[in-house]
Structures are given as structure tokens and as C-alpha cells.
Design goal:
8 strands, two-stranded antiparallel sheet, Muramoyl-pentapeptide Carboxypeptidase, domain 1, six-stranded mixed β-sheet, alpha/beta, 2 domains, Aminopeptidase, single chain
Length: 338
């Protein structure tokens, strides 16, 4: 029998996508545990990267699998989008994944489509850390969109069927090309990243990766940016958010700003106060900027209590007046050019 590592994505201080009162980290854990129980009952050696609501660094998730010399690594996720119409299941493998990894992931994707009743979004390649740092065939599954009510309904209604289908797909993949098939030797050695901290502590370098990816997609589609959708809130993404802010000031208030991603004196002078109860694209830009700075809040364009809490936490961490209102000083700190 095979050694299989099941990774419930996110957890603890990183809830992943949050929509309709449900957290991605909870759905990921439920499904990972259910699939694990099925595979364990069939005699496989199943290792879970987490069994409770805790944060596990990405590199440690890969290290758990590498230390166990696992035959297969599966990371469980659910998607999220700014628009509720996005839907469906998809599966990700590393950019340089070999034929065996591809075969196994395609089998699991097929089984998920059959059992879930959701749209087939296909098999994709990416450079996600848990795919890059693992030394065995690895896949990252996205079982529907948390931002889509119908996907949520199907996830719940077909939960047992989905868990069984994923377990069947994993076993079928193992039979298709055998255990311990190596991936190319170009795998980057594990590097432990800084942990994600709660909003009340000093910000980390990155925000929750799923939220950042969705922010990058929205910046590309709504504001004509050309960002790589990699889930990393680096300088290019933060500058693109500043451009989006300038574009919204021009659109809404005829500010006449050069959309250059630099928060200079003219942009500061055109800045409007954004506070609890506000709605719209300016609120979305504020939420995106907070998330990129490590103070995550759901980018939904609605300035509610969670967004206000993130604003206050960011202000406190940056020694600003923690009034929960985003004005020129707060936006200036969010859009500083570091």
C-alpha cells in the first residue's frame, strides 16, 4: 500500500477564501479528513499535514511529505472570485511536472467532475510552493468556488460522493504509473517562509495566497494590468493596486491623475475618505491594499466591520491614529513605494 500525504490548505490565521459566512480552511479540512479516512480504511498509510484549525507554513507541508518519502501529495483547496458567477473544479500540478504526475492529476480531475456536478475547469500548471517543494507527484485541487452559491450547495450535497471519488482517483492514479515515480531534479530546495500573523501583529510579506491571486486576476481584468497570477503580494502587485486607486479617483472624481502607480502629492491631494458603510470600487481597492500588506479582509467592495478592523490594525501597526477611516495618511502608508 502507498504512503499518501493529504494537505488541508490554509488554516489558523490564514482562513483562505471567506464567503457567505464559511471559510475555505474549514471546507479544506473536512474534505481532507474524509478522504483520509477512506484511504486509511483501504490500508494506505495516510499522513495529514493538519487535523485541526492551525497554520502550517507552506514549506513545512512539503517537508512532511518529503520526510515520509510519500508516494503522492494532494493539497485540498476551494476557489474564490470577486464575481459570483465563477464556478467549477480544477486541478493544478507544477510547471515542470512529469508524465506520471500529469496522469494522476488528470484522473483525479475526471473523478471530481463526475462526482461533484460542477463545471470542469481543467488541469493547470503553476509554481505553487507545495507543488514546487515536494519530491513526489503532487497536485493541488480546487473543489468549486466558495463565492458561488451553487458550487457551495453542490459541495455540501455531494460531499461523501466527492470524498469517495477523490480517494478512488488517487488509487487509480497510483495504479496507472506506480508509486515513488520521481519528478525532475530541478525542484527548488525547501525554504521556510515567514509565518502569517494575525492582523493585530506586524504584517508579513505576503497576504493569503488565494485572496492575492483573485486580486491579481481582478486587477488584470478590470484595470488592464498584466500581472502574473502567482499569489505573491510583491512590489508589482502593490503598484498595480495603486494604479487602480488612481484610475478610480479619475473615473469617480475627474481627478486628472497620471496612472503611474506612484502615490505622490497629486494623488494624495485627490484622496477621499473611505469609511464603514461605504461601498464600491474604492472600497475594493482599499481591501486589496490591506490584504497585500498582510492585513487580509475579503475584497468584496463593502466596508463592514471586518474591513474596519483590518484598517485599525494596519493603522496601529504603522503608528497611525487607529480611527478605522482610510484617508490620505492611511492610503499613503498603504501605497508607500517599498
Amino acid at each position: 500500500m502507498a504512503t499518501i500525504v493529504l494537505d488541508a490548505g490554509h488554516g489558523g490565521t490564514d482562513p483562505g477564501s471567506v464567503h457567505f459566512g464559511r471559510r475555505e480552511s474549514d471546507d479544506n479540512l473536512r474534505m481532507a479528513l474524509a478522504v483520509g479516512n477512506i484511504l486509511r480504511a483501504r490500508g494506505h498509510n495516510v499522513i495529514q499535514t493538519r487535523t485541526t484549525d492551525i497554520f502550517v507554513p507552506l514549506a513545512e507541508r512539503a517537508n512532511i511529505a518529503n520526510r515520509a518519502r510519500a508516494d503522492q501529495f494532494v493539497s485540498f483547496h476551494r476557489n474564490g472570485a470577486y464575481v459570483a458567477t465563477a464556478n467549477g473544479v480544477e486541478n493544478w500540478i507544477h510547471t515542470n511536472a512529469d508524465a506520471c504526475t500529469t496522469t494522476r492529476a488528470q484522473i483525479v480531475q475526471n473523478r471530481m467532475v463526475e462526482s461533484s456536478g460542477m463545471r470542469n475547469r481543467g488541469l493547470h500548471r503553476g509554481n505553487f510552493a507545495v507543488l514546487r517543494l515536494t519530491n513526489m507527484p503532487a497536485m493541488l485541487i480546487e473543489l468549486g468556488f466558495m463565492s458561488n452559491p451553487e458550487d457551495n450547495r453542490l459541495f455540501d450535497a455531494n460531499f461523501n460522493a466527492n470524498a469517495t471519488a477523490i480517494a478512488n482517483g488517487i488509487e487509480e492514479g497510483l495504479r496507472a504509473c506506480g508509486p515513488n515515480t520521481p519528478i525532475p531534479p530541478t525542484v527548488t530546495p525547501p525554504v521556510t517562509p515567514p509565518p502569517i500573523t494575525p492582523p493585530t501583529q506586524q504584517r508579513p510579506l505576503f497576504g493569503p495566497s488565494d485572496m492575492i491571486r483573485e486580486i491579481q486576476r481582478t486587477l488584470n481584468s478590470r484595470y488592464g494590468q498584466t500581472l502574473t497570477v502567482d499569489g505573491i503580494a510583491g512590489p508589482l502587485t502593490r503598484r498595480a493596486i495603486t494604479r487602480a486607486y488612481q484610475a478610480e479617483l479619475n473615473r469617480m472624481f475627474n481627478a486628472g491623475l497620471v496612472v503611474d502607480g506612484v502615490f505622490g502629492p497629486l494623488t494624495r491631494a485627490a484622496t477621499r475618505l473611505v469609511r464603514r458603510g461605504d461601498r464600491g470600487n474604492l472600497v475594493w481597492v482599499l481591501q486589496a491594499a490591506l490584504t497585500a500588506r498582510g492585513f487580509p479582509t475579503t475584497p468584496d467592495g463593502i466596508f463592514g466591520p471586518l474591513t474596519e478592523a483590518s484598517v485599525r490594525a494596519f493603522q496601529s501597526a504603522n503608528r497611525l491614529s487607529a480611527d478605522g477611516i482610510a484617508g490620505p495618511i492611511t492610503f499613503g502608508a498603504l501605497f508607500r513605494g517599498d
